[in-house]
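Lab notebook, bench 4. The sequencing result for the construct came back, and we need a structural model before the next group meeting so we can plan mutations. Quick request posted to the team channel:

Model the 3D structure of this chain.
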Amino acid sequence: MADPQIIVTDQANFFRVHRSAYVLQDIYRSELENIFDRCWLYAGHVSELRAPGDFLRRNVGGRNLILTKTTFGELNVLLNACAHRGTIVCQEARGNAQSFSCPYHGWTYDLNGRLVGLPGGSAYGREARNDSNLSLNPIHHSTYRGLIFISYVAPEQDLEDYLGEAKAYIDLICAQSESELEIIPGEFNHSIRANWKLLAENGVDAYHLPFTHKRFLEYIDTLGGEPSSHKRIGKGLPLSGGHSVIISGPPSTGRPIAYWSPLFPEWMKDEINRRFRALVTKYGKNRAEEIAHANKSLFIFPNLVINDILGLNVRTFFPTSFDAVDVTVWGAGFSDETEEERAARINGLISFIGPGGFGTPDDVELLESCQRAYAHAGIGYNDFSRGMSPGTQHHTDEEQNRAFWREWSRRIGAERTRAGSSESVRSVSTERL
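Done. Here's the predicted structure in token form:
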């Protein structure tokens, strides 16, 4: 059976994506190879590796990695698989160590991944410890503003070129404080029975807020904040490379640095205002407003969302099948925050993003509902045409989603898309796992 046209658009009036893109097994395999194996993927933050010997074990893009900080302060990223038989070498999620020893046959590696211990090494008939083929595999990595990214193949672009226009918004987020951005210890992990692209779309979809998250906006009203009926202003911007950002204001949920923050106690307002005045002095009023008083949802293709809305959080996700995705969320803050400020930031994070919060359960239910509908042989198209008419740009438009799908199409292969046609789908493959 022939595959359908995945993207149908006339570039001016409509943009539609066939729902088979969310259910076809061959598309899922192509995404693993052409997107997750080839893009820069977020792996962690330098604040999680402060002391020499600190390490993290992370699943990134379907592979298990070790992030280490060596005695000389060098960052290393290593495949967490013994060069002997491929056993997971580092078993702990984080810690401090000078070496990692495989539990299977005792091969031991230093923080650079070099083999330094080989039981019965004389049996190999050569100096095995000096054989680079018997080291842990190094992974390409680079950092921007403390964010650690990895690539499983030699990258087509260096990290800064890959981030492109998104760098300006990372800079805005980091400019909130003179101190360094840091990840708050702890994380949320959960799974969603839905295709990963639904989560990518949702991360920069402001259109759903008053409907999906009506309960949360009503809760904000009870705290004396901005009424949920208030007409918010903002814009959604497609950025280079499939990245995008939504900027909106006035703040709809409150942030520690913002002038309006119903989720944060009244006694914090003087300090919040003092910080804003310092930003005005340093950057001028207009840029200070961009830094402190504008909500930002930044999407980095293919699977990173940095939300500077309710406090600050970092979210990544990776598909485990065509209809399942694992999600990890970290809270973030700045190193000069007081215990009270940090507690308020965490409270804001938990109230919306947490597993019992107002936001995540609602999003999960509706994304899984979408996926269940697509299981009906994947018939039909999703529409992403909102905002294509000239002069109507708004932060609830869908140009951010169109930017994602254009980059997806470029990486997956143009043979699956056809512009300028509304020809109906002749047949739909229903291959499943």
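Residues 269-283 form the longest helix (15 residues).
Will bring this to the meeting.
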